[in-house]
Amino acid sequence: MFSLAEENYLKAIYHLEHENQGEVSTNAIAERMDTKPSSVTDMVQKLAEKEVLSYKKYKGTLLTPTGRKIAANVIRKHRLWEVFLVEKLNFHWDEVHEIAEQLEHIQSDELIVRLDKFLGSPDFDPHGDPIPDKHGNVKRTEKKLLSECEKNQRGVCVGVKESSGEFLQYLDKRKISIGTKIKVLGKEFFDGSMIIQVGSDQFFISQKIAENLYVQTN
Amino acid sequence: MFSLAEENYLKAIYHLEHENQGEVSTNAIAERMDTKPSSVTDMVQKLAEKEVLSYKKYKGTLLTPTGRKIAANVIRKHRLWEVFLVEKLNFHWDEVHEIAEQLEHIQSDELIVRLDKFLGSPDFDPHGDPIPDKHGNVKRTEKKLLSECEKNQRGVCVGVKESSGEFLQYLDKRKISIGTKIKVLGKEFFDGSMIIQVGSDQFFISQKIAENLYVQTN
DNA sequence: CTATATTTTTAGACAAGGGTAAAAATATTT
DNA sequence: AAATATTTTTACCCTTGTCTAAAAATATAG
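^ Those are the sequences you sent over. The predicted structure of the assembly is below.
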């Protein structure tokens, strides 16, 4: 099977593939894994031999379908354990990552089948990220405007509609950028304004803002 | 801190110390850990440097108080996870050992505090073994005759009262020896006979037998 | 289209943990 | 007590995953 180190590489490459479409560079992996490019080259060559990724010298890597499935399964385990830690052991959602990083490598398919059932087969982890199903498939949804979201919905910022300087400056001040997770805490029907959560900050936004932000929702 | 391999050595030595009183031999550790004596020597010397055990060449090893505490904590985690697997995930008690062998190495004190609370601070694991408390102390109880045990009590065989050949042969046939776990499934007041469980076997024993077996109960 | 900068790979080393084979110490027989 | 058997240790090699330094490939600038 795959070692702890190998699983971590596959996971990192999986995430990098989704962030920047296309080949993943050696340096990008090294930075993500907090290791040296030379170590990455070694590991990537080993994983290519195992046919979980395709690798062309100096050209970067891509997961094979097998590799993608393995990576998705590690992520599935990570996120299920996060749900367990928050829902059952009452951890706060920002305390669970490190523990889940360890738990995700526990090897037992039956354990995960039962854990999933015990948790009620959740679709999302406590951070709002989708949990891949047992085949490694992730529910991917279409983007929509933040203003179309309902109370308690979560989304990931994937773009803006109108990109004026003032608007981008506003987003910068609010620490919103591509990939930022947003949760709608409240919505006022009268004027379409919202209270949203971004990281640990909660604040008010007008309808005009909400109509200019694209999010990918759960 | 201590690596996975180091924790496993400490755990094995802890158990061996309790089984055979006194120094633990290199060969005994090697056999228990399914490794070679030469590897044991290396590791034992390393652990002696770290002052978790005392080691005299050719004389065997003993855990230091620090080492014993670390080992007891690993065992605590192992047994708490076994309770989780059986009570919450509905595994059968004989399916959980391998998974718990992995889970016992997850590093997070807070996780164990919360897991323990979630499980209702159990005193025993699903096999009937006591769970060390957070300071590494194990409830040790006095031995008594099996005949003094009540229904549903569990005990570990620690000796016999009268050791005639016939009796020892009987015990051999029933696969009962020092360390064998016994659970009282039923007790007949009329004649003091019992139905007991030994491993996965269940059978009937007379009062005469029950009065000749010493057990250490929970 | 060279020259320079950056990225990536190779070569060689190291630490952890484990294995083999032989030497050294201890135990057991006779 | 000497001879033999067993246990334990030593010396050396292997694998995994990492690092540093230098070489090679690619990208960027002038």
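Strands of chain A lie at 53-56, 60-63, 143-145, 154-160, 181-187, 194-198, 201-205, 213-217. The CA atoms of residues 72 and 137 of chain A lie 8 Å apart.

Shout if you want it in another format.
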